[in-house]
């Protein structure tokens, strides 16, 4: 191990009984090279970004060497996948290398995704491909730029080792960060296998290390607090997804973070034209995870978590918390959309005004991101020609604009001040699938500059980036038929 790398790992998960995980070592696959390192993530960890240029860093991430203190493991969990129960899943292509402390003393789990098979690979090869790794790398940073809780990415390590998916592809490893990667499915595994002692140990572990304010509560109140936190952060996460037009694509319970993080990016998609029935996952033929269904699926997954925690806390006490999910979601969602409309006050008629605008977008599939951004140019006492020209039915848009102008006048809104606020919350840039695809195709040809450019733009998506005039447009003709599936 190169002594210049200040990477000293430990891992609190090892405090849990050793039958709750499997020891596993990364298995290098071909020769490796750095594709991209995320300077923001290095800064977050208090590391010099120049470390990414050290061959020892690449060797560490590729599994050729282990850093000091690393004792890699794969964890076991279960889950409901597309509504069907699977009693055992687990980290099939990810291993938990250990934890690093940032300058503030916060701990970050470091996962290697694609570093080889684990005992939970279920006949899989445990590998990741460059295509999907780039998508997750860029989107996790895009979500952070939008202020949405997410796992983060430290680096992409490329490999010349072949990986077979629908076709032969180039392999890669994603170095992924999160406070914890524990999911609803971890709790489901121990509950449904009847290992209730382990279930309590896992719950206590999460509380001790991530929700310490609950630790002093007696049982079962501490577990009710854990569940309420999951309900609240999931409601807020889903509201944020809906507000920015993000579709996850695989909202299985094993892809739901107990801390309300966006996790396991695969066939995701940001809306282009506003279509509530948008299905981003080509594998989701029934549309279970269509954009408009995401809030409902959040509730369904929380109901599964309630069942999993029922050996620790009475369901009659958890049910009111689950029932509160809808109100929590709606409150957060309409607050976010009020901000997108530039409204400072909360009024009873606001949801009707918001829904009318969304209906207007849906009627003609207007571009979701562009239209919200354009709305900042609205003036209370002008004809707003630019907005009207954006819609096929100018008369219907004009009728809504009259209502919006009245609402702005009612709270004494100043046009210039409101426009500035709106442009701070309505992004100009999101990671549209065609942008990701262009970066992927260039990277597959050995050119990683587009990854760097997109990462820079997506870190501050509400700012103007004159150098990125080509990145805020709907998909070009060549990209209209891009399909992403569970292998993405």
TrEMBL record:
Binding, Mg(2+): 255, 264
Highest taxon above the source species: Bacteria
Pfam family, one: SelO
UniProt xrefs under InterPro entries: SelO
Catalytic activity: L-seryl-[protein] + UTP = O-(5'-uridylyl)-L-seryl-[protein] + diphosphate; L-seryl-[protein] + ATP = 3-O-(5'-adenylyl)-L-seryl-[protein] + diphosphate; L-tyrosyl-[protein] + UTP = O-(5'-uridylyl)-L-tyrosyl-[protein] + diphosphate; L-tyrosyl-[protein] + ATP = O-(5'-adenylyl)-L-tyrosyl-[protein] + diphosphate
Residues that hold ATP according to the record: 90, 92-93, 113, 125-126, 176, 183, 264
Entry EC number(s): 2.7.7.-, 2.7.7.108
GO molecular function: AMPylase activity; ATP binding; magnesium ion binding; manganese ion binding
Residues annotated as catalytic: 254
Cofactor(s) in the UniProt record: Mg(2+); Mn(2+)
Keywords: ATP-binding, Magnesium, Manganese, Metal-binding, Nucleotide-binding, Nucleotidyltransferase, Transferase
HAMAP family according to UniProt: SelO (MF_00692)
Function: Nucleotidyltransferase involved in the post-translational modification of proteins. It can catalyze the addition of adenosine monophosphate (AMP) or uridine monophosphate (UMP) to a protein, resulting in modifications known as AMPylation and UMPylation.
Family, similarity comment: Belongs to the SELO family.
Protein name per UniProt: Protein nucleotidyltransferase YdiU
Species whose genome carries this gene: Plasticicumulans acidivorans
Lineage of producing organism: Bacteria, Pseudomonadati, Pseudomonadota, Gammaproteobacteria, Candidatus Competibacteraceae
Gene behind the chain: ydiU
């Amino acid at each position: 191990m190169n002594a210049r790398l200040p990477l000293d790992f430990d891992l609190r998960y090892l405090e849990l009984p050793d039958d709750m995980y499997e020891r596993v070592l990364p298995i290098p696959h071909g020769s490796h090279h750095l594709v991209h390192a995320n300077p923001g993530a290095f800064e977050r960890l208090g590391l010099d970004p120049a470390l990414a240029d050290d061959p020892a860093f690449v060797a560490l991430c590729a599994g050729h060497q282990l850093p000091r203190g690393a004792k890699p493991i794969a964890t076991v969990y279960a889950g409901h996948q597309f509504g069907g129960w699977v009693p055992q899943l687990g980290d099939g292509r990810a291993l938990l290398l250990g934890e690093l402390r940032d300058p503030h003393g916060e701990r970050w789990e470091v996962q290697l995704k694609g570093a080889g098979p684990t005992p939970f690979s279920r006949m899989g090869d445990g590998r990741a491909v460059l295509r999907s790794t780039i998508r997750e790398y860029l989107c996790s940073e895009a979500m952070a730029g939008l202020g949405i809780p997410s796992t983060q990415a430290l680096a992409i390590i490329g490999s010349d080792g072949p990986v077979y998916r629908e076709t032969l592809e180039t392999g890669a490893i994603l170095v992924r960060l999160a406070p914890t990667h524990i999911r609803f499915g971890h709790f489901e595994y121990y509950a449904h296998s009847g290992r209730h002692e382990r279930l309590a140990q896992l719950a206590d572990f999460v509380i001790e290390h991530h929700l310490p304010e609950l630790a002093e509560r007696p049982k079962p109140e501490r577990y009710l607090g854990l569940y309420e936190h999951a309900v609240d952060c999931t409601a807020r996460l889903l509201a944020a997804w809906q507000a920015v037009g993000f579709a996850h694509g695989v909202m299985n319970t094993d892809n739901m973070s107990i801390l309300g993080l966006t996790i396991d990016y695969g066939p995701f998609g940001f809306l282009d034209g506003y279509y509530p029935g948008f299905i981003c996952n080509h594998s989701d033929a029934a549309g279970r995870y269509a954009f408009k269904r995401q809030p409902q699926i959040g509730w369904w997954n929380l109901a599964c978590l309630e069942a999993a925690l029922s050996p620790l806390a009475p369901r009659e006490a958890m049910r009111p918390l689950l029932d509160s999910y809808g109100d929590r979601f709606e409150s957060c969602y309409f607050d976010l959309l009020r901000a997108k409309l530039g409204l400072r006050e909360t009024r009873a008629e606001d949801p009707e005004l918001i829904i009318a605008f969304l209906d207007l977008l849906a009627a003609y599939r207007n571009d979701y991101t562009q239209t919200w951004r354009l709305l900042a140019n609205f003036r209370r006492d002008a004809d707003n020609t630019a907005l009207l020209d954006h819609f096929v039915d100018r008369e219907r848009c004009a009728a809504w604009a009259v209502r919006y102008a009245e609402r702005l006048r009612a709270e004494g809104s100043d046009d210039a001040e409101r426009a500035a606020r709106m442009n701070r919350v309505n992004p100009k840039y999101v990671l549209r699938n065609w942008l990701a695809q262009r970066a992927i195709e260039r990277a597959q040809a050995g050119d990683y500059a587009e990854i760097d450019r997109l990462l820079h733009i997506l870190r501050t998506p509400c700012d103007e980036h004159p150098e990125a005039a080509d990145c805020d447009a709907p998909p070009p003709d060549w990209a209209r038929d891009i399909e992403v599936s569970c292998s993405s």
